[in-house]
Specification:
This protein is mainly β. It has five helices and 22 strands. It has a single domain, classed as Immunoglobulin-like (Sandwich), CATH 2.60.40.420. Bound molecules: copper (II) ion (CU).
């Protein structure tokens, strides 16, 4: 397996030589250079009826579950076309098989401005909601975190209302980062799956052939990956031999997890080869490999009690 040196790459980006003063002045004088891009996303906080275990079983242990144990009403981040006219898929065709949890994968490149147009469509609970982003630059008015006496409309968007968050991807924003509800409804929202990821490329960095989002989070009595529990319900990620595969891994909630993939290794930031990595609440990590191991593999959290409570899925590599 040819490891892709994710950590090395990120460090290299930060070692870009300082910009000469004359060039820096020119950049200041022309802030709207042709390379500056504005990326727009329309996102709704949308009520859905969510099923954590659609096939109603843990296929490995043979345990059966009923809809009464696995279905509940919740609110999720859903991607929309311009002006929230029609719903779009949260992830592109290269991703997994989930379309509500996690929320839209917000893609950008260093130097981009991001305008995230958010609409609270929560007609079920009629709670306030917000979006709070890690890893990017913004003013306090785009923080999306509720602080009585200080925060504004960004932190508590009322049902039926909208807010546009203004973000910028800096040279220190490369990689994947969480976003989540940080309003007064934060606790219920996160427990119900209201979180997603930003994926930011460095200058000149190519998109991978496949990009998989793995979010570890507890949900009710289960431990879920992208809001689903047990093989056959959690995402089945697929790739082909020869493709560049990127894994975006994140944890939400109050527990630590250990991400593990069978039959593969990757190069960590410290230069070691790993097949397991610990991750805590709101932490993320990203790595790539060049796929050359066909077969049907498992990926899972290696905290045994989490794995037994559903935190396990299938990764399929075709020739
Ligand atoms: Cu875990």
């Amino acid at each position: 397996m040819e490891a892709w040196r994710a950590g090395t790459y990120v460090q290299d980006l930060r070692r870009i030589p300082p910009v000469p003063a004359v060039v820096a002045l020119a950049l200041l004088a022309f802030p709207c250079a042709a390379s500056a891009r504005t990326v727009n996303y329309w996102v709704g906080a949308k009520p859905v009826t969510w099923n954590m275990i659609p096939n109603e079983r843990d296929a490995i242990m043979g345990t059966r579950y009923t809809a009464a144990e696995t279905v509940f009403p919740t609110v999720v981040y859903r991607r929309y076309s311009r002006g929230w006219k029609r719903p779009l898929r949260n992830v592109g065709s290269v991703g997994g098989n989930q379309n509500y949890i996690p929320g839209p994968l917000l893609r950008a490149r260093v130097g981009d401005r991001l305008l995230i147009h958010f609409k609270n469509m929560d007609t079920t609970f009629r709670r306030v909601h917000s979006m709070h982003f890690h890893g990017v630059h913004y003013r306090p008015s785009s923080d999306g975190a509720y602080l009585p006496g200080f925060s504004g409309r960004d932190a508590a968007v009322k049902p039926g209302h909208t807010y546009t968050y203004r973000l910028r991807a800096g040279s220190d924003s490369v990689g994947v980062w969480p976003y989540h509800d940080h309003s007064q409804s934060m606790e219920e929202s996160i427990a119900g799956g209201m979180y997603g990821m930003l994926s930011i490329l460095g200058p000149g960095q190519q998109r991978p052939d496949r990009e998989f989002e793995v979010v570890f989070a507890p949900m009710g009595q289960f431990q879920t990956i992208d809001g689903r529990a047990f093989v056959g319900n959690t995402p089945v990620f697929t790739s082909r031999v020869g493709e560049t595969v990127q894994w975006d891994v994140m944890a939400m909630g109050s527990e630590h997890h250990t991400f593990h993939v069978h039959g593969h290794r990757w190069r960590a930031a410290d230069g070691t080869d790993r097949d397991t990595q610990t991750i805590g609440p709101a932490e993320t990590f990203v790595f790539r490999w060049h796929e050359d191991d066909p077969g049907t593999w498992l990926y899972h959290c290696h905290v045994e009690s989490h794995m037994m409570a559903g935190m396990i899925g299938i990764y399929r590599v075709r020739r």
